[in-house]
Specification:
The complex is a heterodimer of chains A (249) and B (447). Chain A is of the alpha/beta class and 249 residues long. Chain A is built from nine helices and nine strands. Chain A has one domain: P-loop containing nucleotide triphosphate hydrolases (Rossmann fold), CATH 3.40.50. In chain A, the strands form two sheets. A six-stranded mixed sheet of chain A has the order 5-6-7-3-8-9, sandwiched between helices. In chain A, strand 8 and strand 9 form a beta hairpin. Chain A is globular. In chain A, 51% of the residues are buried. Chain B folds into two domains: 187 residues, no CATH class; 161 residues, no CATH class. The longest helix of chain B has 40 residues. Chain B has 447 residues and is α+β, with helices and mostly antiparallel strands. In chain B, 51% of the residues lie in helices and 17% in strands. In chain B, strands 3-4-10-5-9-6 form a six-stranded mixed barrel. Chain B has a two-stranded antiparallel ribbon with strand order 2-11. Classes of the chains: A alpha/beta (249), B alpha+beta (447). Bound molecules: adenosine-5'-diphosphate (ADP) and magnesium ion (MG).
């Protein structure tokens, strides 16, 4: 639907999609991802199904290698599944060309990775504005919004600083601000505090809670931090590419 | 509703933004990124050096060849109109003389001529020469012979006089009048006179190389004449071979009254002779005539010069090519170094094709900057070379700089070519960057 053609031709179905997307931010059914390395095949995701309501905040926990990152990448349309169905905001991210999938990522998804999220040649402000530029906005038009978001994450004074001048925690906060600039349906974070000391980690954790509350953004966050995971309303536990527990159902 | 957001083509704003920063960051980065400074500066300098060398070398060569051509040209007519199939003669026609200048606005003068091989006999020895019959009223406009005459008083108009009539107040003329009687006047090249061991004022005999079928069987036509002056054009072929005489005399001598060997044409710009001759030929062909540019008789030398220019261009292109290779290397390294950043950009929604485009633009920008820098340096150097006398060149070019001739067309071609090459050089890096797998690059496995 978010290909240019369909968006104009199928405006009648827009409403239903909208209505649906208000209920479900993410719907995943029997998702599989198989890596084959020569003779060996490895099932990183072995049939994962779950749904996330719009505005929900979900922690994904599990041992290293249990398929959390793989799941997140697929939900964020950065990686494609081997099999299974997926809807994000009512849309199938993988229906379309690279152009359309990229647009989907740009508009509907905000990513935060564990570290080195930022582009070192660009100031914090420019980093935050970048997804807007990719969407086709001019920098001047993005500046105000980017500044607001930086203020929201408590870095308004560091707007003109470069990533090299920011601490790890500050960099992560800039990355979170950047993930929100295009008002995405879904904020995906892969161990956003994994590289931070406990105090900075706590900062990030409370920031997620606040943002989820203030913006009603749906959040899927992978974390090893038990306290953080427990503080979120819903927890999904993974093991060997399967969901072993889901507090939401 | 989402489409409203597309004020610019998605990505293009970002590409421009990224490009600007990636090119300038080397100079502005807070964190000293020596690597990327080198990375961008190296190919820029490489291409600049190539383009600069190209500008300077080819312009100096151009100046040299231009001078050489001028010298080669000497008194050679810029274009000769002759019969198409070689050795025939053109019927003398005033109408033709009037028609030729209408062919091109570049034509400034026309003059009929008669040319023939001849044996010159002085009192001491014979020698073969080329007898040029010219119309004294017109010939100077096409050949500027008067400017080369060794005696200032000698004008082509002298040729129309049978030697040393009473009205002649020429000093030399008076002295020799008695001895010479009334003979037609010739002008001969100074080298030719030297070989003949003759001087101005001496009597010579013209002997036809084509025997005449006279009453007494085959006997060569002979014509006594007087050397009325000598010329020195600086071109050996002329100075050692040519004798000038009045057109009518040569026609009579050759038994070819009412005929010309052809018509000589002078142009505003002799170096355009080839083109103009080609143009004229379109109209002359139907009359069985052909315009022969002066370059035709110097084909071998001019070809050699052109070949040399090609060779030089080739070498200089190679320099530029090396500069372009360093773009490839620089950008491939940049792709490797920035793989994570590129993957981040993909995760932010930059299209794969846009990443490729970014690198093509990078290559093109580096090339453009290099070309501009090279042109600037090259033209500045040329300015210097052409105005400041070089001590080692004082013999050849006393008191002034080297002659230069900038071929703007060629420079434009090289500049555009270099920019295109630098974009082509970025194709491989562009492919590399498009092949980055964001998931693979972003995952911290193995780190
Ligand atoms: N590109 C790949 N090739 C082969 N195996 C992979 C690849 N990516 C991930 N895996 C494997 O898939 C499994 C899940 O990985 P991942 O999703 O990164 O786990 P987590 O994020 O939970 O630590 C791991 O066993 C990992 O080794
Ligand atoms: Mg992981």
């Amino acid at each position: 639907m978010w290909s240019a053609n369909e968006a104009t031709s199928a405006s009648s179905t827009d409403l239903t999609v909208q209505a649906k997307s208000q209920n479900w931010a993410v719907e995943v059914h029997d998702l599989r991802k198989v890596y084959s390395m020569g003779e060996l095949t490895l099932e990183a995701l072995a049939g994962v199904s779950f749904s996330v309501r719009a505005g929900e905040s979900v922690a994904i926990v599990g041992e290293s290698g249990s398929g959390k990152s793989t799941l997140l990448h697929i939900v964020g349309a950065l990686d494609s599944p081997t099999a299974g169905q997926i809807r994000v905001g009512g849309l199938d991210p993988f229906r379309g060309t690279d152009r359309q999938v990229s647009f989907f990522r740009n508009k509907h998804i905000g990513f935060v990775f564990q570290n080195n999220n930022l582009l070192p040649e660009f100031s914090a402000l420019e980093n935050v504005a970048m997804p807007g530029l990719i969407l086709g906005q001019r920098f001047e038009d993005m500046r105000q919004r980017a500044l607001l978001l930086l203020e929201r994450v408590g870095l308004s004074k560091r707007a003109d600083h470069y990533p090299g001048q920011l601490s790890g925690g500050e960099q992560q906060r800039v990355a979170i601000a950047r993930a929100l600039i295009n008002q995405p349906v879904l904020l995906l974070a892969d161990e956003p505090s994994g590289n931070l000391d406990s105090r900075n980690a706590a900062n990030i954790h409370s920031l997620f809670a606040e943002l989820n509350r203030d913006f009603q953004t749906t959040v899927l966050v992978v974390t090893h931090n038990q306290d953080f995971a427990n503080s979120l309303p819903r927890r999904i536990e993974m093991r060997d590419g399967r969901i072993t527990a889901d507090s939401g159902t | 509703m989402e489409n409203e957001l597309h004020r610019l083509r998605p990505g293009s704003a970002a590409i421009f933004f990224l490009l600007k920063r990636y090119l300038l960051s080397s100079w502005m980065a807070r964190r000293r990124r020596l690597q990327s400074t080198f990375g961008v500066a190296l190919p820029i300098v490489g291409i600049a050096v190539g383009v600069c060398a190209f500008t300077v070398v080819l312009s100096v060569m151009g100046g040299f060849v231009h001078g050489l051509k001028k010298r080669l040209l000497g008194v050679e007519p810029h274009i000769e109109i002759v019969v198409k199939d070689g050795f025939g003669r053109v019927p003398a026609s005033a109408a033709l003389l009037e028609k030729i200048p209408t062919f091109s606005r570049e034509i400034i003068a026309v003059a009929p001529f008669m040319k023939s091989d001849v044996i010159l006999q002085s009192s001491r020895k014979p020698i073969t020469a080329v007898l040029w019959g010219v119309d004294p009223d017109r010939a100077d406009a096409v050949m500027q012979f008067s400017g080369y005459m060794s005696s200032a008083q000698s004008q082509l108009s002298e040729l129309s006089k049978d030697s040393f009539s009473d009205s002649d107040d020429n000093e030399l003329g008076k002295a020799n009048q008695a001895r010479l009687g009334k003979f037609p006047t010739l002008f001969a090249g100074d080298k030719l006179l030297e070989v003949l061991d003759a001087e101005v004022g001496d009597r010579l005999t013209l002997i036809s190389t084509q025997p005449d079928e006279g009453l007494g069987g085959f006997a060569p036509t002979q014509q006594p004449a007087v050397v009325g002056g000598s010329f020195q054009t600086g071109s050996l072929t002329h100075d050692s071979k040519v004798v000038l005489a009045r057109l009518e005399l040569v026609q009579k001598f050759m038994n070819a009254e009412g005929e010309w060997s052809g018509v000589q044409v002078a142009l505003k710009e002799p170096l355009d002779a080839e083109q103009i001759a080609a143009e004229m030929n379109k109209q002359l062909a139907s009359e069985g005539l052909r315009a022969k540019p002066w370059t035709e008789s110097n084909k071998a030398l001019l070809k050699a010069l052109r070949l040399e220019r090609w060779g030089m261009s080739f070498v200089l292109y190679m320099i530029i090519l090396v500069g372009c290779f360093s773009i490839t290397i620089t950008l491939v390294l940049a792709v490797r170094r920035k793989a994570r950043e590129m993957a981040i950009l993909r995760s932010l929604g930059l299209r794969r094709a846009d990443l490729g485009l970014l690198y093509l633009c990078k290559g093109g920008s580096i090339g453009t900057i290099g070309v501009l820098l090279g042109l600037l340096c090259g033209l500045f150097l040329l300015q210097l070379i052409s105005h400041v006398p070089l001590s080692i060149l004082q013999d050849a070019y006393p008191g002034r700089g080297l002659p230069v001739l900038v071929s703007w067309k060629e420079l434009l071609g090289v500049s555009l070519g270099s920019v295109v090459l630098s974009i082509v050089a970025a194709v491989w890096p562009a492919i590399e960057v498009m092949r980055i797998d964001p998931v693979e690059t972003l995952s911290d496995r193995g780190v």
